Amino acid sequence: MIRAVPAPEPVAPPAPPRGQPAEGDAEDRPRGRRKPRGQGIREHRRQQTRARIVDAATDLFDARGFDAVSVVEIAQRAGVVEKTVFNHFPVKEGLVFDADPPMRAALLDAVRRRPAGESVAAAAGSFVVAAVSLLGTPEAADGVARMARVIRGSRTLQVREREILGELTTSLADLIAEETAARPGQIEPWLAAHAVLGLYASLLELARDRVLAGVSGPELAAELRHQGRRGLALLQFGLAGYAKRR
Questions:
Q1: What global pTM score does this model have?
Q2: Does residue 149 belong to any structural domain of this protein?
Q3: What pLDDT score was predicted for residue 4?
Q4: 177 and 122 in one domain?
Q5: Which of 1, 22, 87, 130 has the fewest other C-beta atoms within 10 Å?
């Protein structure tokens, strides 16, 4: 699932010239501008409410399926009014999928930060394999299984997931086109982006299949890495020798 992909490690800012305070040092900060205590408390309560709504929705979706549960029921289970749910999640699908999945920024960052000489397929594909392999951890298995059942039981969620994959593909294709100065209409950036996200979708479905079959932990992680490396090799070295007719 999209939420399961880790965020990228933050990039350290460059060091300031000697003799100048670093950004955020006491000399550089405006005096007397502390965050009001009440504002911090309100934000904490807002996050607590959001978490209760997500927990309530997850339990109800797991028990009865996404399409059979109303927003009113979720609000009642979470102890809030229906309007509060919509304030946090304007659409019901947002209770399952992030509006802007962390994977988008992480994937693009992996491509931007790749070393000289490394291809987009290698950088983006390696990120995808490493990220999806984390779904094989014992801690992730229960969540993966629950969400697999919910998503596969709802046509609405399946459509939304494909839309998100399409949005990720567009973001990656745009970055590749920008880096390569591709002319309008060139298909290479789109072809490369579709290949990378195709690898992601394939590994994600494999993880769901295997977890629902009772496989998890080191066995699943090893299988995802193995299949991911096979897919990555196909991305990097092409399809010319694959599935030749005999």
A1: 0.79
A2: yes
A3: 41
A4: yes
A5: 22
Considering its fold, how many domains does the chain have in total?
Answer: 2
Question: Are residues 117 and 145 both part of a single domain?
Answer: yes
Q: Amino acid identity, residue 144? A: V
Residue 114 has pLDDT above 80, yes or no: yes
User: How far, in Å, are 89, 107, 144, 148, 166 from residue 66 at the CA level?
Assistant: 15, 28, 15, 12, 22
CATH of the domain at 70: 1.10.10.60
| Residues of the domain holding 66 | 38-90
Residue 145, token pair as written in the block: 């299984």
Neighbours of 165 (CB within 10 A): 19
Residue 170 falls inside a structural domain: yes
Degrees, nearest 5: CA angle 111-125-173: 55
Half-sphere exposure of 168 (CA within 13 A, CB side): 30
- The lowest-confidence range among 4-13, 59-68, 112-121, 227-236 is 4-13
Q: Are 112 and 8 in contact (CB under 8 A)?
A: no
Residue where a domain terminates, one of 90, 113, 134: 90
What span, in angstroms and rounded, lies between the C-alpha atoms of 207 and 136? 7
